[in-house]
């Protein structure tokens, strides 16, 4: 569906003004959209995964670890596929208000693509450099979006998500390869210098807030040098008529599951081209390892 078609469908949760803002600016921030009952369950599930990580000494298909991670003092960067690691995360995708909110932005038929649980650990959690999401997993159209759920209050000191408004409209898209043709998973310094990053909008929020950004929206988050960690649950959902045409690097079991509405009979093709990533079938590390240029082996996922 096109934005014009989506806007003609009566919304379930959002106002029409919020929907129009999303399509014009490429993002939304909804404060306290998720209630305390869900937050308590998600926090408890997150703590269980942190405890599991104490038995892991090197990155694997589930846990992406900071170099200083130990059993006594765990420091996670990411849990891949949390929906497969604890049932609460999948239940959140099925039964919370989150997919209903997404249906107001991609149309009534909504598919799951993947999930991640990103951490910015206290006192040094790493930055994520400016990048697009869609170049990691191209689709036939640009409906995919990522919903971040703040499990705890996130202030400016914890490295909240930052977006560049209207960057989803930049055409052609910028590259995420370096001058030598190596995939970096982020924009080059030269490309960043051509952007007016003073217009970046930071999206802090209280616990239960949702950040939503389009797959073409450039985004970034700073280091966390505060004494408080910042776990951020990320779910990427798409319209039912968007189909991936490269390997999903995270390989979730629930990929293409229809969360709302019905399966599409036809694919919708956006005429704008999309940058293609490397061949992820050979393995994948993480955006953190890529951007920090760590010499780590590829993990088969």
Keywords summarizing the entry:
single chain, 301 residues, alpha+beta, Jelly Rolls, eight-stranded antiparallel sheet, four-stranded antiparallel sheet, globular, disordered C terminus
Quick synopsis:
This protein has helices at residues 3-7, 16-25, 36-53, 82-85, 87-95, 98-106, 189-194, 287-291; strands spanning 27-30, 63-65, 76-80, 110-120, 128-131, 145-150, 161-163, 201-202, 210-214, 219-221, 230-239, 258-260. It has 301 residues and is α+β, with helices and mostly antiparallel strands.
| Secondary-structure element series | HHEHEEHHHEEEEHEEEEEH
The CATH topology turns out to be Jelly Rolls
In angstroms, what is the radius of gyration?
18 Å
The CATH C-level class name: Mainly Beta
**Structure summary, number of beta strands:** 12
Low-confidence stretches: 295-301
Share of residues in helices: 10-25%
**Given the C-alpha coordinates, what overall shape results?**
globular
Total domain units: 1
State the distance separating the first and last CA atoms. 31 Å
Q: How many helices in DSSP terms?
A: 8
| Beta-strand share of residues | 15-25%
Instruction: Supply the CATH superfamily name.
Output: q2cbj1_9rhob like domain
What would CATH call the architecture?
Sandwich
Query: How many strands, which pairing sense, and closed or not: the largest β-sheet?
Result: 8 strands, antiparallel
What class do helices, strands and sheet pairing give?
A: alpha+beta
**Could you report the average pLDDT, rounded to the nearest whole number?**
93
């Amino acid at each position: 569906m096109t934005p014009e078609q989506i806007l003609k469908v009566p919304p379930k949760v959002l106002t029409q003004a919020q929907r129009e803002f999303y399509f014009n600016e490429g993002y939304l921030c909804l404060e306290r959209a998720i209630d305390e009952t869900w937050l308590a369950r998600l926090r408890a599930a997150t703590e269980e995964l942190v405890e599991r990580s104490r038995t892991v000494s090197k990155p694997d298909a589930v846990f992406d670890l900071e170099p200083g991670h130990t059993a006594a003092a765990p420091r996670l960067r990411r849990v891949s596929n949390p929906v497969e690691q604890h049932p609460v995360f999948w239940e959140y995708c099925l039964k919370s208000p989150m997919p209903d909110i997404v249906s107001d932005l991609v149309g009534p038929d909504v598919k799951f693509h993947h999930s991640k649980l990103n951490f910015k650990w206290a006192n040094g959690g790493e930055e994520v450099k400016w990048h697009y999401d869609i170049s990691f997993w191209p689709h036939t159209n640009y409906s995919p979006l990522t919903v971040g759920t703040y499990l705890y209050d996130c202030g400016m000191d914890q490295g909240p998500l930052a977006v560049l408004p209207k960057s989803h409209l930049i055409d052609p898209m910028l590259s995420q390869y370096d001058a030598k043709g190596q995939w970096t998973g982020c924009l080059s310094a030269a490309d960043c210098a051509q952007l007016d990053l003073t217009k970046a909008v930071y999206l802090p929020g209280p616990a239960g807030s949702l950040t939503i950004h389009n797959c073409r929206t450039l985004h970034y988050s700073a280091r966390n040098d505060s004494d408080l960690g910042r776990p951020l649950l990320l779910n990427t959902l798409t319209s039912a008529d968007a189909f991936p045409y490269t390997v999903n690097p995270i390989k979730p079991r629930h990929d293409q599951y229809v969360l709302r509405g019905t399966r599409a009979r036809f694919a919708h093709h956006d005429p704008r081209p999309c940058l293609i990533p490397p061949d992820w079938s050979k393995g994948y590390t993480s955006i953190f390892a890529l951007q920090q240029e760590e010499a780590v082996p590829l993990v088969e996922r």
